[in-house]
Amino acid sequence: MKVILDANVLISYLLASDDTRTVVRVVEACFAESIPLLVPPELLNELTSTVRNSTYLQQRIYPSEVTNLSNAMSAIGITPPPIDTPLQTSEPTSRDRNDDYLIAQALLHNVGYIVTGDKDLLVLGQVQHVHILSPSQFWATLANT
């Protein structure tokens, strides 16, 4: 069961002040239980640029926290090459073309789950073999395995 954790999930994790929040449990479970993580370079770039370009996030997340999380994910995850060509599929793509790299990487690398809070992705539900779930839906899936 390979997993991609979307940048918004990682940002929520970095913002979380309560260890009992579902997003914290999901991210920590992926680290602790050695769930294979796919860590596309585009994802780490999105995480870094989103925090860097938001005054709100800059005031709440230290650059070192982003670096430490990125390094930890890279150390335990699988880092595929970046996608150079647009997604070519008969399946639906995200309403936000900037999210298509997640679907493309998941399809190319046999990922079972994309965990996201992004409604543009969640509305898809599933693309081929890739389930697109919220952190709470994914947590429920982990609990049932």
Question: Which SSEs are present, and which pair or pack?
Answer:
Blueprint: E1 3-5, H1 7-15, H2 22-32, H3 41-52, H4 55-58, H5 63-76, H6 100-108, E2 113-115, H7 119-122, E3 126-127, E4 130-133, H8 135-143
Parallel strand pairs: 1-2, 2-4
Antiparallel strand pairs: 3-4
Task: Write up this protein.
The protein is an alpha/beta fold. It has one domain: 3-Layer(aba) Sandwich (Rossmann fold), CATH 3.40.50. The protein is built from eight helices and four strands; from the N terminus they run βααααααβαββα. The protein has a four-stranded mixed sheet. It is globular and about 40 Å long. The termini are close together.
Descriptors:
145 residues, single chain, Rossmann fold, 8% strand
Give a brief outline of the structure.
This protein has helices at 7-15, 22-32, 41-52, 55-58, 63-76, 100-108, 119-122, 135-143, and strands spanning 3-5, 113-115, 126-127, 130-133.
Radius of gyration: 14 Å
What CATH architecture would you give? Answer: 3-Layer(aba) Sandwich
Helical segment tally?
8
What is the CATH level 1 assignment?
A: Alpha Beta
Shape: globular
Task: Spell out the CATH superfamily.
Answer: 5'-nuclease
Largest sheet: 4 strands, mixed
- CATH fold label: Rossmann fold
Proportion of residues in extended strands: 5-15%
